[in-house]
From TrEMBL:
InterPro entries recorded: ScpB_csome_segregation (IPR005234), WH-like_DNA-bd_sf (IPR036388), WH_DNA-bd_sf (IPR036390)
Domain of life per record: Bacteria
Signal peptide per UniProt: none
Name the UniProt record assigns to this protein: Condensin subunit ScpB
Organism: Ancylobacter aquaticus
């Protein structure tokens, strides 16, 4: 061994001897999981977590234990869009929001359009207009596309081959949903007052699905269309927005 290699080896031994010991009783796998979630810039799915943990680690048990451990802390371990992330406790969010720039608020037209896409996807612009009962300005859809909450899915196999829209993983993460099926149903909407409890008994809300696979009546987007698309700024709102 050369003198330089011996010096490096000696330095490594000294660093290991002086390094702080892990807290007694804390599962090393649990500590590693905490470190991964803390350092992650985006939600992590269980396959990524498992690949980074020691072989044989029980990922689901570790996540369950950590979630329970953080339940009453200032931040929680939550599952969104099928992935795991650390997020500020809901009851403290308003305190931290005061230090953030005021986010751009969606217009009523944009919120209605987003809700229709979430529940009825895949859906075309014409179908959105039919449900809303008013024309939908292109700028409204551009805002949702630019926010990353809505995506272009494909083209409907109908005259004109209109583009179909669906929601994204970013939409689920933003609204704290593990899956699109976690959107509130009719009874829940009635309970929150968002729907009048006296509405007709025939009113139904479809079971939402964001399956990425194209439906039987959809064709894939043309590559050149998908690559060249970019939302254009449009300050106009819908007639009722």
């Amino acid at each position: 061994m050369s003198a330089e290699a011996a010096r490096i080896a000696q330095t490594d031994r000294e660093m290991q001897e002086t390094a702080p010991l892990p807290p007694p009783g804390r599962d090393p796998d649990l500590r590693l999981l905490e470190a991964m979630l803390f350092a992650a810039g985006e939600p992590l799915d269980e396959s990524i977590i498992a690949a980074r943990l020691p072989e044989g680690a029980d990922v689901r048990a570790l996540l369950t234990a950590l979630s329970a451990d953080y339940a009453d802390r200032g931040f929680n371990l939550v599952r969104a869009a099928g992935k795991w992330m650390l997020r500020t406790a809901p009851d403290l969010g308003f305190l931290l929001a005061r230090d953030k720039p005021e986010p751009r608020r969606l217009s009523r037209a944009a919120l209605e359009t987003l809700a229709i896409i979430a529940y009825h996807q895949p859906v075309t612009r014409a179908e959105i207009e039919e449900i809303r009962g008013v024309s939908t300005n292109k700028g409204t859809l551009d805002v949702l596309l630019a926010a990353g909450w809505v995506r272009l899915r494909g083209r409907r196999r109908s005259p004109g081959r209109p583009v179909t829209y669906g929601t994204t993983e970013t939409f689920l993460v933003h609204y704290g949903l593990d899956a699109i099926q976690d959107l509130p149903g009719l009874d829940e909407l009635r309970g929150t007052g968002l729907i009048d409890s006296r509405v007709t008994a025939g009113l139904t809300i479809p079971l939402p699905s964001d399956d990425p696979g194209l439906k039987d009546d959809e064709d894939p987007l043309e590559p050149e269309f998908e690559l060249s698309f970019a939302p254009e700024p449009d300050g106009d709102e819908d007639q009722d927005g």
